[in-house]
Each structure stands twice: as C-alpha cells, then as structure tokens.
Design goal:
3-stranded parallel β-sheet; alpha/beta; 3 helices; globular; 101 residues
C-alpha cells in the first residue's frame, strides 16, 4: 500500500482516539507525510518490514518496539530508527528525488 494512503488512514484512526504506529522501510518517503508515529527497522528490505520469514523472535521484537512507541512522547513526522543486527544484510532504501535537482 502507498505510504501516503497508509498515513492518511493512520491520521483518520488517530482522530477517533486510537493511537497508531507505522513500521516503514522507506523512512524518507514516509517522513514526507508526517505520520503520527513511525518506526524504521534500519536496513530492512521492502516487503520485510518485520524481518524475513520464520524470524519469529526478531518479528516479535520489532512489534514490541513499535508498541512501545505508543507510550513515548514522539513528534508527528518523527521516525524512530532502530538497528536489528540479527536481520543480517543491510539494505539502503531509495532516496526521494528532489524537484529541480
């Protein structure tokens, strides 16, 4: 799903009083929409937001970290970056092209 759509839905849910957390592998793209809360598991590939298949311990850890953000005072648009060395290979997300560059 498109980052813009996800954050728009996230905002609507937040307006109903339900806190949300976005887990993103493209922090630069997500930051443009200023999600209420966001977690970036550094170096994860697109499609692996919670790690690769069968990495249950890592997946649980990322979900716990995301839920912990609900108890922290984060600013809208702020993305919390956490490294998870157990993921293995690191991937650099694509950068947003700036208009006129």
């Amino acid at each position: 799903m498109c980052h813009r759509t996800v954050v728009a839905v996230q905002r609507e849910i937040e307006m109903k009083g339900i806190p949300t957390v976005l887990i993103t592998v493209s922090p630069e793209v997500s930051a443009q929409m200023r999600p209420p809360r966001a977690l970036y598991p550094k170096g994860f590939k697109i499609g692996n937001s919670l790690g690769r298949p069968n990495m249950r311990d890592l997946q649980n850890k990322i979900l716990r970290d995301a839920l912990t953000l609900l108890t922290q005072n984060t600013r809208p648009g702020e993305t919390i970056t956490i490294e998870y060395p157990e993921y293995g290979e690191q991937y650099e997300p694509p950068h947003v092209k700036k208009v006129g560059s």
